[in-house]
Amino acid sequence: MLMKGKKGVVLGVANQRSIAWGITQSLLSHGADVALTVLNEKNKMTVEKLTAEYDNVPIFECDVTKPETIESTFEGLKETYGEIDFVVHCLAFADKTDLDGGFINTSEDGFNLANSISAYSLVSVARAAKPIMTNGGSIIALTYLGSERIVTNYNVMGVAKAALEANVRYLANDLGQDGIRVNAISAGPIKTLAARGISNFSRMLKIHEKVAPLRRITTQEEVGDVAMFLCSDLSRGISAEIMYVDGGFNAVGLGPIEAYNLE
Length: 263
Hints:
The chain is built from 7 helices and 7 strands, in the order E-H-E-H-E-H-E-H-E-H-E-H-H-E. The protein has helices spanning 19-29, 41-50, 67-81, 108-129, 155-175, 201-211, 220-231; strands at 7-11, 33-38, 59-61, 86-89, 137-143, 180-187, 242-245. It has a single domain (7-248), classed as Rossmann fold (3-Layer(aba) Sandwich). Helix 1 packs across helix 7 and helix 3 (67-81) runs parallel beside helix 4. The model has no long low-confidence stretch (mean pLDDT 94). The longest helix has 22 residues, at 108-129. The chain is an alpha/beta fold. It has a 7-stranded parallel beta sheet, sandwiched between helices.
């Protein structure tokens, strides 16, 4: 098993539809010891049901808007594992009102909130993780194509993901001397709890399915397996990269004409 003996944490599991859960399942299936973080007690109850079939999956409550919970989470990881080999950051949030209509209407508070949770938290988490990644390892974040191209209604989250990707590159430079690789996965749209907050998301999925070269939507399992690869030693030469797992959608300028409703 590729991850046998590897220990780490996946931040941001909410429910069975979470990309974070797909990543967790792939890591566990390949022999990793995986701890999880949840936002609050309500989420913890949901995630405990998901992990019931697995042995020894510690769950920590971590709200990245409260620095003390990041600190306590990594103290708990140190007590549990001593040292860790990977961190998977699956955290993003924007106010639903900022994911509809024009980006120009984004409030300063909404802008700061989205960037704090979705982008800056990677810096906070990496800083907390570094002291217990004593043998190097891998840090992964999740991003989306809206970071570099206009995606209607993605709005402030696209700006936050652009910041996240810049964070990946600069953190990769800072942490590379410690043997820590930092990368991001740019996943295609997946029906998650967070995605449902984006207006017309179901229509976005249909367009993606028709336009992507693979002619299908992206799955949790596909993202999970790529994340597992990036956490494993097989990716030991990869850092500061944005890896697309979107069926090739990112490479398309204009897809099949029949995919678009021109009426």
